[in-house]
Amino acid sequence: MSYKLVMEGWKKFLRKDTTGENISELTITGADSGCSLNKSCKCVLPSMNLSVSQIQDMLVAVYGINSMPISFKSGKADGDCGEETQNLIMKFQVDNDLKCDGCVGPETLPILQKLAGGKVTKKPKSDVKKVEPASTAVVTTSGDTGQTISLIGTGYTHGSKRKGANVIPGIINAVHIHTILAATGLFTFLPGREKYGFGNPVVADALSAAGQSAKNISPDSKNPLVIGNLSTKNGGPMPFSSSHQVGLDVDTSLYSKVDKGARYWDAVRGFKDLDIPRNVAFLASLLKSTSPRVYHIFTDNTLKALITRHLKQNASDPAMAEVLELWNSIRNDRRLAHWKGHRDHFHIRFTHPQGSMTVAQYKKASRNRGMVASTKKSTKSGGSLIEKLKKSSSSGFGYVIGRPDGTIIDSHNEGRKFYGASIQKTMAAMAQLIAHKENPAAQMNDDELRGLLTYRRRTTGDSSRYPDSNQINRSISKSFNRRASNRRVYRRRPNVSESSSLNESALGRVSHEEIKDIAKNFGVEDSKFLWGSVNNQQTPKDFFNFFATLSRMDTGKFKDSKEEAYYNTYKQEIDKIISIQKEGTARQKSTGWLNDSGVFNFGNVWMKGGYAIGAGNIALVLDNKYVIVVYTRFFTNTKNKRGIILGRLSGIVKELLDNN
Prior knowledge:
This protein is an alpha+beta fold and 660 residues long. Helices cover 35% and strands 13% of the residues.
């Protein structure tokens, strides 16, 4: 950090500090000093294996006892990471042109040790409470950067308790969340769970903010929220909460109006004791947070219904009316989900923050830094996945890898028909727009397209704006008979075929024959793209031709004049599909299941995937240089198979990239 970033008063003070003036007279403030306090760090990163007392002793050695704050004048370190110690660390970091965050990590420690005249290597037992490490650690390292990393699992991104379903991820350099939250005064903790209180610092940030929101809405309430299990120090499965594997899960009680002690309690049976305003404020803060973003919060539908009824009955009270408004903004969020056994606590899971890695990515980064990394493997390694699958389940998958000009580099079962799952929606949407070009009001609008192609309703929880993907997929299909089926459809506006008179605002539908006529302009010969297992069958080669054509249209590198003329006729419709499909790629990246495949090493990536009834499919355009299409159908259903299906799909894509 440059001295020009430090305020003038601080510069002046630094010129005086050798005269013995008290360092504690100045408080460093982030914006003025160029410092930004790392609130999740208690003066020293756990991976440095040093206590706060040892850091204080080294600071005394550097600055001299007469220059220490009042609390240090005894010559003995107190082991407390308070404001004085944090300010002194930041002063040291400013003095030595280091990143100024009040936290001693791998950058600050060597300089501090050198200037203190020695190197401390052992942490005194008296300073630190012994925490038993997890026996299921996946990754062990030496020489790491000190950054907390929640590893991303393959298939099950947060790990899975199902035996053999996933390589257990883990967490690198976890912080003790219980300790951080205890300092806020907003929480209490289940007894005996100290060694299950580790996690990613983003969890502490989100819970602290949510706890403060609950306090703000009811300042006089006294009974704190009880924090239960997070993760073990190294992650992986553990007793009580086997799915808490990467430091991004936490269990909490519900706020109560009476003292329930440090325990969970049944909020349905004891509903009269439920502190509704604080629980609503707490949940709203979490669900509306974007950094970190909540993946899900498990609760109970009966409890949600009781809260809704109570608030509506008491809406005449202005305070309750405000709580009802806040509750209505979140209660239909799909992430606030019912799960059996959650009447007495919330299970909160956060998405992986920026900087998260798969085990393979972490090992590669470790090697690049000259580190040592090792992993436990749940399956035997070695050999080609594709060759193994060809021997064991040759008819269960097909793929094509090639270039946007239509050149096929490699393929397997390219002409075999596979169930498309949701991958067909791109073509169905394209055909719906083109077929109803003459009546724009009958075309799907942008929100309807995003609901269909990017699952925006699921990711945002906004059911008032975005339709359910599968419901609108059925509604645009002429082959779907809503009268003969109990499956739900999109009812926000009527269908053309069901209007008693031609309603120009009605949603247009498309038939198999209409799609076939449109699809042939994209090189499709013998595939079906409507809803339903019979009407949703494609060959890998047809879908490769479809995405290769889209790639050419996206870049203006047309195969011939006929293709260019077709694009110019339907430019608006084609560009809209490509644009919205690119938006959906961000969601796929955030889930993490493809991160280990190497596709995101390309700068410009967009895709469409599908996963249902035992099928897992993906189509990718990589830098408009490669097009990859993979269809798999190894099982007849997806129950307990998600990790295996997505793991194989990702592995096939990775091998195709590695080999080509």
